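Students often ask why we bother encoding 3D structure as a string. The short answer is that it lets us treat folding as translation between two languages. Here is a chain of 156 residues written in the first language.
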Amino acid sequence: MVVELNELAPDFALEASNGETVSLSDFRGKNVVLYFYPKDMTPGCTTEACDFRDQHENFENLDAVILGVSPDPISRHEKFIEKHGLPFLLLADEDHKVAEAFDVWKLKKNFGKEYMGIERSTFIINKKGELVKEFRKVKVKGHVEEALEYIKNELQ
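And here it is in the second language, the structure alphabet:
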């Protein structure tokens, strides 16, 4: 099953950086910014995470929770959070099952090599658990502000 706009987002349970297993359904009653990124500690992913960090309070004020998802293990997430002071949960999708459900596990090409990996994407899920907006093939610059504006203008 692949996620569809205006449908309930597929529920999942993943290990989180707070040591708990969290489910998407745990956040019903809040807007959720679910962002998928390729790898902790890489330049683009660090910029994106720090942009979300810098806007975290503004998302909170709109009753929105930020959840970052990558295939990295929790130990790497913890180092990433500590190094950059990230105030939101990072989820470990090591078997990329959630990435597949959201259709962001893609064949990628870099310097002539082909491999499977995360296509940077963000999904906005409303308080009822419905997927209301998707940003695919995200370019980092200005993206966090775009997601914030969407929530401010469409979900308030």
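Translate back mentally: The chain has a mean pLDDT of 96. Keep this in mind for the problem set.
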